Amino acid sequence: MATKIVVLGAAESGIGAAVLAQKEGFEIFVSDFGNIKPEYKEMLEKYNIPWEEGKHTEEIVLAASEIIKSPGIPEKAPIIKKLREKGTSIISEIEFAKRYTNAKMICITGSNGKTTTTSLIYHTLKNAGLNVGLAGNIGKSLAWQVAECNYDCYVVELSSFQLDGMYDFKADVAILLNITPDHLDRYDYKFQNYIDSKFRIIQNQTAEDAFIYWNDDPIITAELEKRNIASNRLPFALEKKKDEKAYLEGSNIVFNINDPFSIPQGELAIQGIHNLYNTMAAGLAAKTINVKNEAIRQSFRNFQGVEHRLEYVATVRGVRYINDSKATNVNSCWYALQSMKTPVVLILGGTDKGNDYTEIEELVRQKAHTLIFMGLDNHKLHDFFDKMGKKTFDVQSMEAAIKTAYENSVKGDTVLLSPCCASFDLFQNYEDRGVQFKEHVRKL
Length: 444
Hints:
The protein is α/β, with parallel strands linked by helices. The protein folds into three domains: 4-91, NAD(P)-binding Rossmann-like Domain (Rossmann fold, 3-Layer(aba) Sandwich), CATH 3.40.50.720; 100-302, UDP-N-acetylmuramoyl-L-alanine:D-glutamate ligase (3-Layer(aba) Sandwich), CATH 3.40.1190.10; 311-442, Mur ligase, C-terminal domain (Protein-Tyrosine Phosphatase, Chain A, Alpha-Beta Complex). The protein is 36% helix and 21% strand. Helix 9 (191-198) links the parallel strand 9 (173-176) and strand 10 (210-214). Helix 13 packs parallel to helix 14. It is globular and about 65 Å long. The protein starts with a strand and ends with a helix.
């Protein structure tokens, strides 16, 4: 009888894992404690994969030889606790997919900048003519692509939750952009647990593999002192201090790695200091797999950017509206505020993940004249920000947030949605939050 695999969670990663498991000859069952979206039910029916929703039938789940767990399911979920007690192997879809492909893996993690950097690398490799797939937190699931496509290389965005379920997986190129406190509610409110999760990006690497990291990040540099790093280190930083392979020299980004080259900062399609770092990481990744310098330059000039990340929406009555819904932590909001050149009406709030707002305190004092708290529970925001004496408003819908912003902004202002928080109290996800922001702005 075939080994029984149960997939917990029937969204993008779970469905992809189920399709690959079936193709590889496993007996497969998919179980989702919530409701499965119609498009995913269609996929399950198309491949004749048995499934259930609204429950986890324990006699089926606990009988599995291996569990492929969707990243959104926390360790404290009762079914996961029972599986752990039983000693059942629990892995992520990414770990499972890698068993069935020899494609090169370029993997990106970090608290901020993952999606932009991943998208920029994919754009660069695709433009250079490589047979490349985009996977992880973005694009189609890696497992589905391994089952249905035949790529030579994958660019994979990895969250800490995905990394937690990866054990034998090895990245050929590992990129660690930065580490700031995030998702602490999932890590027992211990920052070190989250740091350890992020550093799983380099597990199993050898001297043949590349490790690209931000050498200005104090958390990363402190951790490097404590760890034995087997990989080939390729640090990047704002200025060259010692061994940096990418850095800023005057107004040029220099890539000092096999056949060095530079690109003027002003030619980049995406601006802002955070995007300098993202560009450095992407350039080093492209260089490690021998993409030609001119192809990299061209891609950096024509990259379109990422939806919901400092995305310009419209100007209404002389007020600019910026959608930064992807800013689900405080550090992301810091970069957004830091890039603002005009007075700000700031919309923030949502599901708090153990946030410390001290990081943005000075920027909020300097740049924001009005704060709109959008969430079911805003008391933590009031406790921190009310002392500043800014105008504050509480809203519980995007429609109300935009109406309030419109009424409290004047020509020359910027209305910035940069929430610092997850979206699940009022929205399906950060994309839904960003889409609603754009819809209501365009109705003004």
